[in-house]
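Appendix B. Chain record.
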Amino acid sequence: MGSLFSRQSAPLLGVDISSSSVKLVELGRDKGGALVLECCAIEQLERGWITDGNIEKFDEVAEALRRVVKKSGTKTKNVALALPSSAVITKRITLPGGMSEQELEVQVESQANQYIPFSLDEVSLDFCVVGPSKSAPGDVDVLIAASRKEKVQDRQGLAEAAGLKPVVVDIESHAARLAAGRLIEGLPNRGADAVVALFEVGAMTTSMQVIRNDDVLYERDQAFGGAQLTQLIVRQYGFSQEEAEGKKRNGDLPEDYQSAVLRPFVDSLSQEISRALQFFFTSTPYNRVDHIMLAGGSAPLPGLTESVIQNTGFACSVINPFDGMEVGGGVRLKKMVREAPSYLTSCGLAMRRFLQ
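Structure tokens predicted for this chain:
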């Protein structure tokens, strides 16, 4: 079976490859067992190198991955990567408890045929036991994950081309949830029974997951993200795509940028978030959330949190996945704090090191 859920405790890099950048995180533990951020780095990708999770420019992305490893200063070679949720079929099934690993494997393979629209020869298939079944005492819930082999091989090939050793291939939404789980525990009552809407605002897509007690109540992706802000800057000021992206990052924009471009964009982004919540309310028994968490490159935009609170009436914050961690000497603190919301998925991947 594939390695969608392999376990590792040797040093491990979490590498998140999105449509706009490659993000790397390495975590360790101190003597007391507290998490330590050893290093983190981001390398931007040019538009079109990765589209809808597909690697269109393999050599360019592999080179960017080499650069981000060099920039981070890490010596670690083992890496955890992730596939977008759209490239993975997941299914939760219930099986009798007390089976050996081999017996489980046989059962999973025989059941997987029902859920996977490809021949099993074409897929990387893996499973993990989630825990005792709530609905059937004595049984266990098992999560099956399957992806086309070429999708997994593309990611593995990228790592190998950059001189790394792929040991884990996870799912982006699972990695984001793992990193967010630490932060949910920081909510009142350690986040017990809290309904949390997690939004990751990427360049092209905003991903939403609604979580309660580690269960996913609802998931939805929207084609809306930070790239639209870049487009608005291009239209307003006549810059090229690259100029606009650079100026957006450095904050080097004309005086009227806040009022003419940024504020309208922030308003429409918060309306998209509000709309996504309405979809959740109309398709589930829920009619409120306890907290909205914002992550991704556009999450720290000035005024976004306030606009979301105003539009939805719910508590909202931008999250830093490294909150409460010690920070290693090699990390540039100011830069890390500024970019922290972008590292949610890569942080979750790096946390796989400690999942025994």
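Further analysis of this model is presented in Appendix C.
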